Amino acid sequence: MDIYEYAKENKLLSRSAVGGNEFREFFKNIKIKTVVEIGTYKGISSAYMAQFAKKVFTFDIRDYKEKYKLWQELGIENKIFYYTIKGKNENFEGKFQSSKNKVNIEDVINSIRFDFAFIDGEHTYEDVKRDFELVKHCGKVLFHDVAKKSFTGVRKFVDEIGAEVTGNIGYWHK
Description:
alpha/beta; 7-stranded mixed β-sheet; 7 strands; 34% helix
């Protein structure tokens, strides 16, 4: 099943990287095995990347339940491993779920062997930099929302590290 078409038909592209043509085109020219994604939201980008990878480990501060149904309907639920993370937004998170069952993102990431990372979490300069520091050792990192005027921190950081920018994505590699 074409995940982009599925997401389009079900009106799931809002706020998703998959809605951007440059994101979809990017994956036609790269080989990946194991992905770490920071910023799951409703799981569309996780699902899209699962088409190209054997495993996707994805992290967010809020557990949007609808992603599980999506992954199951697409038949990729066994390829995606979701974690709700502890973080600076504990007050925000507490409105939606208990603090139990949250993981320390550094501990989980340090236990995974991965060759690609996608950063689409919090959009401040400091948060993007922190996320990058967690995953840069894999050698290939893709950023989302680099062209949005409301997320200038993402663009500032991407420019600082010399990532290649195409539309709304930035790609850094060793």
